[in-house]
């Protein structure tokens, strides 16, 4: 007796916000990162704090800061700790009450959340957003290399810099001044915490990018006429294979 073939699984349609986000930055998902370190040299100086702020998008294409994930990090063996840098951040790396975890664990926990967001928005890869983003990206890449992590969800060299965006849109490149002139609150006592700085950078990124929606729509329409615009995917299958082990 012949059995009826099993019905094919029907992909779950993407939410409108995910469809827009998957195209908004050419398949890259913006994730705001801030690191606090024991100096300026990514190869030799300790990574001490890392924070990631997810970026959410609604069905109108409006972005807003989402969840924050933050960890204190134990300095890697042999790491340099510049007293001047520690004076700025106020971090005591070896304080007995500091809830720090190994560098590899911190990165893997952050990356797990980033990969989940990539799938949710049907993007191919994450792109780091930061204030003076090259600094943060250099430290992330150096830590990934030290820990021999193969599944790094971030683009290895491209990034979105909120110092540049704020300079062009607001006339200010210092984070505190950009936040203030944009109409948000700035608490100097909380500055130089990875979570606080990442959250303020996320506010700036969303504030400026949301104001560029009309510009993006015009450019998207021109891209369609040039045949550059691909149809929106219907299911989350776009993850970059290079993120896999």
Gist of the model:
It is built from eight helices and six strands, in the order αβββαβαβαβαααα.
Can you tag this structure with a few keywords?
single chain; 245 residues; alpha/beta; Nucleotidyltransferase, domain 5; six-stranded mixed sheet; 8 helices
Structure description:
Strands 4-3-2-1-5-6 form a 6-stranded mixed beta sheet. The protein is globular. Helix 2 links the parallel strand 3 and strand 4. The longest helix is centred in the middle third of the chain and has 18 residues. It is of the alpha/beta class and 245 residues long. Helix 5 packs across helix 7. Helices cover 39% and strands 20% of the residues. The termini are far apart. The chain has one domain: Ribonuclease H-like superfamily/Ribonuclease H (Nucleotidyltransferase, domain 5, 2-Layer Sandwich), CATH 3.30.420. The protein has 8 helices and 6 strands; from the N terminus they run H-E-E-E-H-E-H-E-H-E-H-H-H-H.
Share in β-strands: 15-25%
SSE series: HEEEHEHEHEHHHH
What is the third-level CATH name, the topology? Nucleotidyltransferase, domain 5
Portion in helices: 25-40%
The biggest beta sheet reads:
6 strands, mixed
Number of helices: 8
What name goes with the CATH superfamily? Answer: Ribonuclease H-like superfamily/Ribonuclease H
Ends: how far apart? 44 Å
Q: Outline the low-pLDDT stretches.
A: 231-238
What is the structural class? alpha/beta
Please give the radius of gyration in angstroms: 20 Å
Overall pLDDT metric = 90
Number of strands: 6
SSE arrangement:
Elements: H1 16-24, E1 28-37, E2 47-57, E3 63-73, H2 83-89, E4 100-101, H3 103-120, E5 125-130, H4 133-147, E6 154-161, H5 162-170, H6 175-181, H7 194-211, H8 213-225
Parallel strand pairs: 1-5, 3-4, 5-6
Antiparallel strand pairs: 1-2, 2-3
Helix pairs in contact: 5-7
